[in-house]
Automatic annotation (TrEMBL):
One of its GO terms (biological process) is regulation of DNA-templated transcription. GO terms for molecular function: DNA binding. This is HTH iclR-type domain-containing protein. InterPro entries: Tscrpt_reg_IclR_N. Keywords: Membrane, Transmembrane, Transmembrane helix. Pfam families: HTH_IclR (PF09339). It comes from the Bacteria. The chain crosses the membrane at residues 40-58, 65-83, 95-116. The keyword Zinc-finger does not apply. Residues 150-182 form the HTH iclR-type domain. It comes from Amycolatopsis regifaucium.
Length: 297
């Protein structure tokens, strides 16, 4: 509903601007003496400066909020270039304005637009677990191979004891399913994905039994992992934290909470491609569900 209203507003604005633009073209004078000229341009440049600063801060942290800000900054730069050239066309500095627009403002705007697009494209691919994914998870070879990445096929074969041909076959299968990517220098890298649980009711026969068994085993492993963590909680030092709370949310608020968590974990999963000194592998979980007393029996 909201999307439909937005599309109607956008289409309506485009239609209304046609007669308004024609009207302005026939009524506005070529010259106009105005006040607050300095305040207008200084205020515009201050806004541009703040957009650059905020965009840099959010972009370095891979925040999705940087996308609209980078896009707005690119639009402001294009506006700056347009008004610099048009309002200074009759002055002696018009060619300096043209050069600034062509070689600085517009190229920077293009770079910012591409950066915004890149931030959108670096979001983890989101899809539902398939039967093929379940088959790959059940084969221990694939777990051994991905556990050695980033590395070349030769390094994986040497570290796992598998034959190189077998390793290459596993890597190509994982690549076809979106789990790994081969770099320019022959190294293979793991690709994080936002995998959603499959629904058994979407399958029939043996496929349904396979999906149900997969989910049962998954949650058994989760319970076992949490039990292990609870019994070893004094051994993790600074490498453990937990938060538990209870709140009341609408369904829309709950979806917003879920989306914000996924954005946060996406940002940290893609912080760097290679291991860093002092890093530690962590098991991160997020569960939210109604308590037993809130579920109808």
């Amino acid at each position: 509903m909201i999307r439909r209203i937005l599309l109607v507003l956008l289409a309506g604005a485009a239609v209304c601007l046609v007669p308004w633009t024609v009207y302005l073209a026939h009524t506005l004078p070529d010259r106009y003496d105005t006040g607050q000229w300095r305040a207008a341009w200084v205020g515009f440049d201050v806004a541009l400066l703040l957009c650059f600063a905020a965009g840099a801060w959010l972009g370095l942290r891979r925040r999705r909020a940087a996308v609209p800000l980078l896009s707005a900054t690119a639009a402001l730069l294009c506006c700056d270039a347009w008004f610099d050239v048009m309002l200074g066309w009759t002055s002696d500095e018009r060619w300096a304005s043209v050069a600034l627009a062509v070689f600085v403002e517009i190229p920077v705007a293009v770079v910012l637009a591409l950066a915004a697009r890149r931030l959108l494209s670096t979001a983890m691919p989101q899809r539902t677990v398939t039967l093929r994914d379940i088959e790959l998870r059940d084969d221990p070879r694939y777990q051994r191979v991905t556990g050695e990445l980033p590395a070349t096929a030769e390094q994986v074969a040497r570290n796992t004891g598998l034959q190189r041909a077998e390793v290459v076959e596993c890597l190509k299968t994982l690549q076809d399913n979106g789990f790994v990517r081969r770099g320019r220098k022959g190294e293979w890298f793991s690709l994080p994905q936002d995998l959603r649980e499959p629904k058994p009711e979407d399958y029939t026969g043996e496929a349904r039994d396979r999906v149900t068994a997969f989910l049962d085993a998954k949650y058994e492993n989760e319970v076992a992992l949490l039990s292990w963590a609870a019994s070893h909680r004094d051994e993790f030092g600074p490498w453990a934290t937990a938060q538990r709370t209870s709140t009341r949310l609408t369904e829309d608020e709950f979806r917003e909470l879920d989306a914000e968590y996924r954005e946060l974990i996406n940002r940290y999963c893609q912080r760097r491609r290679r291991p860093a000194a002092g890093e530690q592998e962590l098991s991160v979980r997020f569960y939210a569900f109604p308590p037993p007393e809130a579920v109808p029996s």
